[in-house]
Amino acid sequence: MSRSLTHTLRLSLALSCALVLGGCETLEKINPFGEKETPLAGDRRPVFPEGVPGVSYSAPVTQPSNANIAVPAGGVPAASTAPSGSRN
Predict the structure, then answer these.
(1) Structure confidence by residue, pLDDT tens digits, 14-43
(2) How far is CA 1 from CA 8, 12, 64, in A?
């Protein structure tokens, strides 16, 4: 292999390992500059214990209102009568 290709492969391997390890949760403990987050005091209660008002989870999903577009009776709108390849 050429030297530049080897250098590029090593650099891409190092960058990919850094990205993978950067998303790792265990590295947050190693960060000396990160402050420890303490949870707020108080009771933890669900906001909507009986479910979200106005939402029926057993009903099918409704179609959005903008999905009903009126289509003209003729179907596809008429294009110009000139062939597509000709220019006037």
Answers:
(1) 888 887 777 766 666 676 676 777 888 999
(2) 11, 16, 57
